[in-house]
Every structure is written in structure tokens, then in C-alpha cells.
Design a protein that fits this description.
The complex is a heterotrimer of chains A (325), B (123) and C (211).
Chain A (H helix, E strand, L loop, with lengths): L8 H14 L3 E5 L5 E4 L1 H7 L3 H4 L4 H4 L7 H12 L3 E3 L14 H5 L6 E10 L2 E11 L1 H21 L10 H18 L3 E8 L2 H8 L1 H16 L8 E4 L4 E7 L3 H17 L16 E8 L7 H17 L5 E4 L2
Parallel strand pairs in A: 9-10
Antiparallel strand pairs in A: 1-2, 1-5, 3-4, 4-5, 6-8, 6-9, 7-8
Helix pairs in contact in A: 9-10
Chain B lengths: L5 E5 L3 H14 L4 E5 L2 H11 L3 E5 L7 H11 L5 E5 L4 H10 L2 E4 L4 H13 L1
Parallel strand pairs in B: 1-2, 1-3, 3-4, 4-5
Helix pairs in contact in B: 2-3
Chain C lengths: L7 H26 L3 E12 H9 L8 E11 L3 E8 H12 L10 H25 L4 E3 L3 E6 H7 L7 E11 L2 E11 L1 H18 L4
Antiparallel strand pairs in C: 1-6, 2-3, 2-4, 2-5, 3-7, 6-7
The chains are: A alpha+beta (325), B alpha/beta (123), C alpha+beta (211).
Chain lengths: 325, 123, 211
């Protein structure tokens, strides 16, 4: 067996050419004038361009869309400065027209590509450059899947474990976002603080398991009343819920609050120990609205809703009350 | 017209100013080259010497080259102004074109200066 | 050993050369994101390696800040390891701005690390390329390598010995009204430093018409 370097030069070259043509990577070699001197099997297979069409041609005549772009700049770096360049898939979406199959080509679905451009020194000739193209479609698909799974997981950590509705963390994030949006859009923002009346007494009398069931039922009913994707119902505390209503003014918020109060009452969950004369689970609701012409800090809005809730409780529960922030 | 011209070079880099001066006087030994190191200084100098051409570096602290060029353009609507920048991107091109200002790409070379002066002569 | 000092003119020349380099890099990056990108080098300094690590380490008493770095090795007329570094939270911001997505650094996937590598590749090649062109010398460069860790870890990983000096460039990066401050560090040994100084003076002499 002969080591490669012991082969005559001509045979070495033939062997290297065969290897380069056989590797599972796209390989293009350009001379100092940017003419194609090598266009390997992989390139032929995935570009649909045969050897006779490619070899000897000007690179930009074969790939006109790449002139003046990142690949062009990388070729210049290699030929003039002797520096290699990396073109990531993330920043350069499929620069070459390469397809996995005829069907993909018909659908114009290019292979996802990672590209490297490297200078190549040649004895007795100006510098050449090698363009390597790797198919990273599988890696890209894998990462897309991972990202989707992460989003699902993340949405789960935004949920309250018991009731399944949004948790306090989600509320805080949403509040920041809607507050900013209301300021930028010049729209009113309303906040409802909803508290189950005499919940401690309910727990004490019926037990914590029933208490949990009550929470789940009330949360589901109230969350089911949200009409728009931007509205959010979150579990704010033990038996306290908060509802963010963007683009909602005082009148609309008051109406919504009253509808919620009625709905909660309408669930007809028996509550023997309720101090209100309904003997059913009821809620008290505090309403606060940030008006368009009077923006306030998030704390101030929450504070006002809290004070309004307290007011509703003081006035006898199973009712709504509003406060200005 | 082969009369001696005055060129104002504005760049916070002294070496850059020296280089531009060298290339200009290399092509036209009788021309007068004035220097300014900041955008603010360039306005004062321009009022002082009434240059026939202004070369303005974009990347300067304080009032940047583009702001200074805009103001110069307002005060002296007829003077050719050329921005000097290594960062030639679409936004720069559009802004320059809108202001009626040209640009010379950095690094400044004798060839680029010669090219600029040639286009001015034909204008 | 006296710290390596540059005269005002030498400093001016080097800062201008690097500003040209990052300016060209900004133009390349602008073409990628189709937004205006501005980059400049407001100042440079020569500092011992230990001080460089401290500079990048942040002021957190709980421990040195983690940073993201991209390094490339250059050799030929002179030899250096060039490292682009951003504080951890800033590098995620850059990737996010360039890539257009929100990604915490811990979740920086392989694909996004690759994007960071490309950004480093563009900026470092541009800086060193301008230097090489202006000094009319040729170099070879390597492909980029991604690092995450403390500045000390990164400087060690890129092979800088205790007696090396770091040429530190402060970089201001501006994209979509986001202003990000980063660094490019060139690790140089004594002979490389002397080569550099010699080349700067030749360049200045040419600028003054004396060469």
C-alpha cells in the first residue's frame, strides 16, 4: 500500500479531485479572476448545473444574485486579504439555489446552508478560494422544534398550577406590556381586582379540597368571559383574581365588572357561611381605569383597583366599586 | 479653469487630515488646504475662507459630519461637499443624495481623491 | 517593564485605522439586517493581560461577569489572537438585533452561536484586514471560535501568556437606536508590539509625504 504523498504528483492530484468530488459537502473553487475551476458532484446534484455549464464560467454569471452581497464580500476577503469567512445559516438564508430534490426545486424550497469561504494558495498562480456549502436543514428543523417546545413549556410556567389560568408572573409581564401599549397607542387601560367573598370561611366550613374546586370553577367561569386575545385573567393571590382590559374605558369596565359579578353569582355555588344574604359564592370587584389623557404608573393603577375592591367589601360585598388612580 | 482652489478638510484624525492634504497638494501644488477638527470648527472655518470644496469626515464626536454637512449645505448652497466614510451603506447614500452631497470611501487614497477632483472638474 | 506607550500621533493613526476597519464592518452588517448600523472606536489602550481581564470582568462583587467572545488567530507578518467581546447580556442583544429574535444567552442555540461567530468574523477580519492593507503586509487568518465564560477564562483559552500585552479597542455599536459597548482585544507579544509600532511610524511618514 502506498502512502498518498509517495504517489506521483499527477496521481495525487487525481486522487484529491476524486475525494473532493465525493465528499458530502458542496465544494466550489474559484481562481483569482473568480472563474469556476471546480464544481463538485454534490453541487451538480443539488444545483442541477452540470460540469460543462459551471467550470470555466465566471462565478457571478452562474450565480448572478450573489453579486454585491455577503458571498461576494467573503470571496474578496479570501482572494485579496487571505482571510476565511463564515456565513451562518441564521444571518444568510440559503444564498445558493440548491435543492434536496426535484420536488423541492419545483416548490422553490432551498436547502438550508452554512457556507465557508477559504483562501487557497496555489503554486505559480494567484490565490484561489474554496467555497464550502454544508446542508444544515436537519439542524435547522431540529432547532425549530426545540424552540416550539420551549414556547409550550414557557406558557406552562405562566399558568397557575391549580386553576390553569394565567399566574401572577404572567400578569406582571402582561401588565407591563399593556401599560406600555396603552401609553404608546393613546388608549385607556382598565384593571379589575376580583376577590371571592368570605373565602376563608368557605375553606373552613367545606374543607380545602372543596375550596380548591371552588377556585377552579370561579376561575374557569370568569376566564371564559374574556372576549379579546389581549384581555387577560390571572390568579393574583390566594382567592384574588385580576383582569387586564386594554382599550377599555370606565363605562365598559364597569359594565364588564357587573357582568362578572352576576356570572359568579349565577354559578350558584352554595356557601352556607357567606355573610351576604345570598348563601352562595359571590365576588367583590374593584375597578380602576387609566384614562387616555391621564397616564399613571402601574403601581398607582393597581393601588386604585385595590382601594376600590376594599370599598366594595366595606359596602357589603357582592358588588363592584370604582376608584380613580 | 486652472485657478488655485481652497479645500477645507474636516476630520478629527490629524493623520487623516495630513494624508488628504498630501494627496490634494500632490495633484495640485498651488491649491490651499485648510483644516478643521470638528463639525463646529468646520462651520467657522468655512465662513472664514469660503472654500471651493469641503471634505467632511462622518465619524466625529460632537456635531457629527452629517449634521455639519447639512448646515454647511444650507449656508453655502453651491459649495461641493463630500463626506468621507468607511461605512458606505444604503442609508448613507440616500441621505447624501438627498442633500446634494457626494462621498469618498475611506481609506482615503490618492486614486480616490483624484477621482473626486476629476468629477468636480467636469461638473 | 515600562508600559507600551504611543505618541499622540501614533495613537491617532491607529485609532483612525481601526475606525476605518469597523466602519467597513458596519457597512457589511448593515447589508445583512437592512438597517442602519454604525460602529466606531472611540479609544484604544495597551494594557497588561491581567488588567484586560479585570476591565472586562465587570464590577460585580459576586464574581466576574460572564461574557461572550469570538476569537480568530492571525499570523504572518505579525502574530496575534484577536477577540471580540461583549458582556453576556449585550451579546444576546446583538444577536437578537441581528437575527431579529428574542433569545436568552443560556438558550443561545448552536445556530445563533454561529451567527455570533459570523459577526465576529466580519468585525475582526475588517479590523485586521485594514491594518494589514495599510501596513502593506500579508497575514493568514483562522475561522472564528466561540467562547463563553469570564474574561479571564476567555483570555486564557485563547492562549495569552502572562507576559503578553493586550491592545484593547473600545467599540461603540449602534443599531436601531440600541447602543452597545463592546471590546476587541488583540493579544500581542513583545516582538509583535515592536512590529506594530514600526509599521505605524512608516504609515505616518507616508502620510506626511516623507516616505
Amino acid at each position: 500500500m502506498t502512502a498518498m504523498h509517495a504517489l506521483p504528483a499527477h496521481d495525487q492530484l487525481a486522487l484529491l479531485r476524486s475525494i473532493l468530488c465525493a465528499v458530502n459537502i458542496g465544494a466550489i473553487v474559484l481562481d483569482g479572476e473568480r472563474r469556476i475551476v471546480l464544481w463538485n458532484e454534490w453541487m451538480i446534484r443539488h444545483s442541477g448545473l452540470t460540469q460543462d455549464k459551471a467550470v470555466g464560467a465566471d462565478f457571478f454569471a452562474v450565480c448572478p444574485g450573489l453579486r454585491g452581497g455577503r458571498v461576494d464580500a467573503a470571496i474578496q476577503q479570501a482572494l485579496y486579504n487571505n482571510f476565511p469567512s463564515l456565513l451562518s445559516q441564521t444571518l444568510n438564508k440559503a444564498p445558493f439555489a440548491l435543492y434536496a430534490s426535484a420536488l423541492a426545486a419545483a416548490r422553490h424550497e432551498r436547502i438550508q446552508q452554512a457556507v465557508e469561504v477559504t483562501p487557497i494558495a496555489v503554486d505559480g498562480a494567484p490565490r484561489h478560494c474554496l467555497i464550502q456549502i454544508t446542508d444544515v436543514s436537519i439542524a435547522v428543523a431540529r432547532e425549530k422544534l426545540l424552540r416550539e417546545q420551549t414556547m409550550v413549556l414557557r406558557s406552562q410556567t405562566f399558568s397557575d398550577g391549580l386553576t390553569g389560568i394565567a399566574n401572577r408572573r404572567h400578569f406582571d409581564v402582561a401588565m407591563e406590556k399593556e401599560h406600555r401599549r396603552a401609553k404608546r397607542g393613546g388608549t385607556p387601560l382598565s384593571l379589575l381586582m376580583i376577590d371571592i367573598d368570605h373565602f376563608k370561611a368557605y375553606n373552613d366550613h367545606y374543607g380545602h379540597q372543596k375550596g380548591d374546586q371552588c377556585l377552579i370553577q370561579v376561575a374557569a367561569a370568569l376566564a371564559g368571559m374574556l372576549k379579546r386575545p389581549c384581555d387577560l385573567m390571572a390568579r393574583y393571590g390566594g382567592e384574588e383574581f385580576a383582569m387586564i382590559l386594554p382599550e377599555t374605558d370606565v363605562e365598559q369596565a364597569t359594565l364588564m365588572a357587573e357582568t362578572i359579578r352576576a356570572r359568579a353569582h349565577g354559578l350558584a355555588i352554595p356557601h352556607e357561611r357567606s355573610a351576604t344574604d345570598t348563601r352562595q359564592v359571590t365576588v367583590s370587584i374593584g375597578i380602576a381605569t387609566q384614562k387616555v389623557d391621564a397616564p399613571v404608573e402601574i403601581d398607582a393603577l393597581i393601588g386604585a383597583a385595590d382601594r376600590a375592591l376594599y370599598q366594595a367589601k366595606r359596602a357589603g360585598r357582592n358588588r363592584t366599586a370604582a376608584q380613580l388612580p | 479653469m486652472p485657478q488655485a482652489k481652497t479645500v477645507l478638510i474636516v476630520d478629527d484624525s490629524r493623520v487623516s487630515r495630513m494624508m488628504a492634504r498630501q494627496y490634494i497638494t500632490g495633484l495640485h501644488a498651488d491649491w490651499v488646504v485648510t483644516e478643521a477638527a470638528t463639525g463646529e470648527e468646520s462651520l467657522l472655518k468655512a465662513r472664514e475662507v469660503a472654500p471651493d470644496l469641503v471634505l467632511m469626515d462622518v465619524n466625529m464626536p460632537g456635531m457629527g459630519g452629517i449634521a455639519a454637512a447639512e448646515q454647511l449645505r444650507q449656508e453655502f448652497p453651491a459649495i461641493p461637499i463630500s463626506l468621507l466614510t468607511a461605512n458606505v451603506q444604503t442609508a448613507t447614500r440616500e441621505r447624501a443624495a438627498a442633500m446634494g452631497i457626494g462621498f469618498v470611501e475611506k481609506p482615503i487614497t490618492e486614486a480616490r481623491i483624484a477621482q473626486l477632483l476629476a468629477t468636480l472638474e467636469t461638473a | 517593564m515600562s508600559m507600551f506607550d504611543l505618541s499622540e500621533l501614533e495613537n491617532d493613526a491607529l485609532v483612525e485605522i481601526f475606525n476605518i476597519g469597523v466602519g467597513q464592518a458596519a457597512a457589511s452588517m448593515s447589508a445583512i439586517v437592512h438597517e442602519a448600523v454604525r460602529m466606531s472606536v472611540p479609544s484604544i489602550s495597551f494594557i497588561p493581560r491581567a488588567e484586560a481581564a479585570r476591565l472586562l470582568g465587570g464590577r460585580d462583587p459576586a464574581g466576574p461577569e460572564r461574557i461572550c467572545g469570538v476569537s480568530q488567530h492571525y499570523q504572518g507578518a505579525f502574530e496575534t489572537e484577536a477577540i471580540l467581546m461583549f458582556p453576556e447580556d449585550k451579546s444576546l442583544e446583538i444577536v437578537r438585533l441581528m437575527v431579529g429574535e428574542s433569545v436568552p444567552l443560556k438558550e443561545l442555540t448552536e445556530m445563533e452561536q454561529e451567527a455570533m461567530c459570523e459577526i465576529g468574523n466580519i468585525i475582526l477580519n475588517s479590523c485586521v484586514g485594514t491594518l494589514a492593507n495599510i501596513f502593506q503586509h500579508e497575514l493568514q487568518g483562522s475561522l472564528p471560535q466561540y467562547h463563553v465564560g469570564t474574561s479571564d477564562e476567555i483570555l486564557t483559552a485563547t492562549g495569552s501568556g502572562a507576559d503578553t500585552v493586550v491592545l484593547m479597542l473600545h467599540i461603540d455599536f449602534l443599531l436601531e437606536k440600541h447602543q452597545i459597548h463592546g471590546y476587541v482585544a488583540f493579544v500581542l507579544d513583545i516582538s509583535a508590539l515592536h512590529d506594530l509600532k514600526g509599521q505605524i511610524n512608516l504609515y505616518i511618514a507616508r502620510a506626511m509625504g516623507q516616505a
